[in-house]
């Protein structure tokens, strides 16, 4: 379930910070040792200004904006999956989790979570580059992504 490029929808995701559990999309960005790096994909919240649109990495340093944008209705997975609404990955919302805890919490596919697809290779590489170059991404996450990319596990 936690292989890189996997797009997962959790019916009730419990956040590290204790926020109320809610349905959430996540993209697995990497895995190293017993930890996985996942990016939250908010569909209802857009922190980018109105003049920012399109698909791909958005980096406006003078406005401290860095995110990866998914255009609505554009296929991003090998199975043709596309988000209905514009969706974003923000470097500041990329976290690492212990795999065993996630597997214990979300045991049953179809009940606890659903796998929506596998991200297309070119799309995934662009996301990783964007997140690794984002000043908003934590240094720890950047190191984990680099190690995962280099096959260190």
From TrEMBL:
This is Uncharacterized protein. It comes from Taibaiella soli.
């Amino acid at each position: 379930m936690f292989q890189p490029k996997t797009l997962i929808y959790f019916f009730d995701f419990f956040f590290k910070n204790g926020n109320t559990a809610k349905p959430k999309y996540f993209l697995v960005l990497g895995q190293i040792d017993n930890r996985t790096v996942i990016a939250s994909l908010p569909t209802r919240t857009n922190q980018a200004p109105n003049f920012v649109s399109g698909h791909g990495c958005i980096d406006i340093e003078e406005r401290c904006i860095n995110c990866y944008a998914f255009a609505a209705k554009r296929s991003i997975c090998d199975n043709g999956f596309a988000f209905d609404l514009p969706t974003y990955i923000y470097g500041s919302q990329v976290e690492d989790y212990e795999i065993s805890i996630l597997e214990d919490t979300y045991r049953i596919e179809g009940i606890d979570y659903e796998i929506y697809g596998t991200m297309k290779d070119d799309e995934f590489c662009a996301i990783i580059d964007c997140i690794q170059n984002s000043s908003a991404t934590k240094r720890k996450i950047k190191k984990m992504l680099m190690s995962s990319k280099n096959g260190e596990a």
